[in-house]
């Protein structure tokens, strides 16, 4: 039995593993689901310093019964997923250049900047960015809804009737999606107008517990998937179809005809973007002509895809190449290899496969890929940014004995309420990360030095996925610089190509 407690509460007894199993059985959680969860738990709690690992272990076993209760129940199908977002409506976009400044709690990424800085006018930005956010339908958002079916869905239900638990939960998750769009989308807003769709994303619990079952079934050549594996595939298809429809509207809009575009994503968003590249960019010559680069952070991109379903789009080789792809997962030199990222999956035409083999690993500082490249120099690092809420600071709520596991998302606060947290985000703040150098390793990570203890980002040492939350924010200014370089290179190449066509005609 673990002894644990919040800084805000008296210590409480935490259930033993045996009682967790008993509660899972009463909740009708399958043995396969429980096994996948426990395997993930061992991985997540082993990461980080000894003290952080102990705190995470205590917190995990304290919350594991509740987490298991957020596992999706029932069959996943379109009839239970609610209405798909209408991307002709501004409210279906987490980021959109038509949204007025200061029109919601979390400022649109198109307008986010540091205090006193100026962004180029939207009409003067030469490129557009389609950004896909990571998973925000997480246990912390669902804990307050355990008495309702809203907490146990495969996909986030958007468009529920106002006042229902489903509507309340969607409001919480949508606020987190807006916040995560601010984290990632703002990395490109000096060169690009940002478009980020809301979508019926798959819940974090569903991904953790059922994605391994799906990839195992596909690997075993199961012709007819059934049970949780089939449900997982349908849940991913629902999320992907929302993203695909949003992208088609974005890329084929005649008002943006001929404009270059970049693609960017994080975590679950990267799973969907990798499929989108194969199905909606690789096979469309006119779209390829406008495609500048794809930044896929947080999940693995197997190199073997570039000899199979991505033959025209290439891995990046330098900072200004175009028609290319970069990818990375961030960890400190002290962090272990998180097998959780190897549980990630990618779609390769014939179905979802588990990430394995060599992965594309790009330094977001030098833009060299692969473990043979030299580390970056401190002077090459341009700085980190974070959309800090004016009314909240995670250091106030996440510094207790037990970590929430998702500190920069205010995990403790999110777990205690049915309401959105009420972020007031108006600007970006610089984050001191110490002396930063980066180098790709042979395990598929970009390794950096540990953050200084007084850095905002040092909170992530106690997170389940460590530096995963800051894959983009840590390199904010390098990303801003790089997208400018690539768009300028695309414009030069396009002018040269057009000149040759005119001269040849």
UniProtKB/TrEMBL annotation:
Region Disordered: start-end pairs: 1-20
Basic and acidic residues compositional bias, start-end: 1-11
Protein name: DUF3089 domain-containing protein
Organism: Zooxanthella nutricula
